[in-house]
Specification:
The protein has about 190 residues and is α/β, with parallel strands linked by helices. It has one domain (about 15-194): 3-Layer(aba) Sandwich (Rossmann fold). It is built from eight helices and seven strands. The chain has helices at about 10-20, 25, 35-45, 60-70, 85-90, 110-115, 135-145, 160-170; strands at about 50-55, 75-80, 100, 120-125, 150-160, 175-180, 185-194. A seven-stranded mixed beta sheet has the order 3-2-1-4-5-7-6, sandwiched between helices. The structure holds S-adenosylmethionine. One of its GO terms (molecular function) is methyltransferase activity.
């Protein structure tokens, strides 16, 4: 059995500080648990993906999980709007496959252009769609759809079901759903194929 990715005390303290400061943006009081991180990475079909995007890495636990499961020649762009989280990830994760970007998940096609990517094979999102400012949820969903290649996988881990209604007009019904009860709070994992 491979070792699960864990969060350090520093990760958790920084996450809590920013959850209190920006509750609508961060949404939970603690980062994803090792069990959730493992399930996200396992459900995302990373084995044959070369271009992977992560939206909302927070303090980087999910980022480490994705890096653990992805191929050596794959690339990961993690998009995060909180500069303190970006600084923390850049200090704590040293992996040449990872690039951090602060442009926001509503600008994925523009972000991919910077890296000369045509499209993404897999997009993994921890963005809290339910608590975003009005209109931003739809803008981010459209951006995900536009950035993903046909046949690509979109995975979202969420506390509430709002994301499935938001994704439906573009992606149709989800292809997979699982609830990770060992996370606090229990978290739903959804995937769609474009
Ligand atoms: C629930 S936290 C998830 C953190 C981490 N992935 C985890 O599971 O522990 C949501 C993250 O989304 C980020 N976020 C919110 N809106 C965003 C946007 N428009 N673009 C990129 N990141 C965003 C927040 O700053 C926060 O780090």
């Amino acid at each position: 059995m491979t070792k699960k990715v864990t969060n350090s005390l520093k990760d958790s303290a920084l996450f809590l500080k920013h959850a209190l400061k920006s509750p609508m943006q961060v949404a939970y009081f603690m980062p994803s648990s090792p069990w959730l991180i493992d399930q996200i990475a396992k459900c995302a079909h990373l084995h044959d993906a070369k271009h992977i995007m992560e939206l909302g890495p927070g303090t980087g636990g999910t980022t480490k999980g994705i890096l653990k499961y992805m191929q050596d020649d794959a690339q990961l762009i993690s998009v995060e709007i909180n500069q303190k989280f970006i600084d923390h990830i850049e200090k704590t994760i040293d992996d040449k496959r990872l690039s951090m970007n602060n442009k926001g998940a509503q600008n994925l096609v523009e972000i991919m252009d910077e890296y000369d990517w045509e499209s993404a094979d897999v997009i993994i999102s921890g963005i809290p769609f339910t608590t975003l400012p009005k209109g931003m949820d739809k803008a981010i969903m459209q951006s995900i759809y536009d950035a993903l290649k046909p046949g690509g996988i979109f995975l979202a881990y969420q506390l509430r079901d709002h994301v499935s209604k938001l994704a439906q007009p573009l992606f149709g019904d989800y292809t997979f759903k699982k609830i990770e009860f060992k996370n606090i709070p229990p978290m739903r994992i959804y995937t769609w194929m474009k």
